[in-house]
Amino acid sequence: MKRHFYLVAGWASLGLGAIGAVLPLLPTVPFVILAAFCFARSSPRLEAWLLAHPVFGPHIVAWRDHGAVSRKGKVAATVAFAASILLALVLAPWPWMMAPIIAAAVGGSWIWTRPEGAT
């Protein structure tokens, strides 16, 4: 039963990551890393496929080995945070416009404290 839960969660995470590849405000790599985590507990074949993936594999390995986020990833996250803040300031009423600002402050601070890998 636990294996099936992780398999479904892995596919759901991978699906969200695929959506994030198209939508600029939804992150891709964190969902792919979560999918790898879930697949490691449910399907070694799918985990190996993700680790060997030419785009996502290096990010997953860097995160697993060093907790690292690449400089490019940090900049992309910061740009996405800035876009979210701008959209909220233009479209959202008070106090809802504060949600992306708080998320950017918390999430951005955490992301920029991670070591940088070679990815």
Architecture overview:
By secondary structure, this protein is mainly alpha-helical. It folds into two domains: 1-67, no CATH class; 69-119. The protein contains six helices and no strands. This is YbaN family protein. InterPro entries: DUF454. It comes from Sphingopyxis jiangsuensis.
What is the element layout, followed by pairings?
Elements: H1 2-22, H2 29-40, H3 44-52, H4 57-66, H5 71-91, H6 98-113
Helix pairs in contact: 1-2, 2-3, 3-4, 5-6
- Overall shape: globular
Span between termini: 35 Å
If you compute it from the alpha carbons, what radius of gyration comes out, rounded to the nearest whole angstrom?
16 Å
Number of strands: 0
> What is the domain total for the residues?
2
Uncertain segments of ≥5 residues (pLDDT<50)?
none
Q: In sequence order, what are the helices and strands, one letter per element? A: HHHHHH
The helix-and-strand class reads mainly alpha
Helix count equals 6
Mean pLDDT: 89
Largest sheet, in brief, is: none
Instruction: Estimate percent helicity.
Output: over 70%
Key attributes of the depicted protein:
119 residues; 6 helices; 2 domains; mainly alpha
Give a short synopsis of this structure.
The chain has six helices and no strands. It has helices at residues 2-22, 29-40, 44-52, 57-66, 71-91, 98-113. The model has no long low-confidence stretch (mean pLDDT 89).
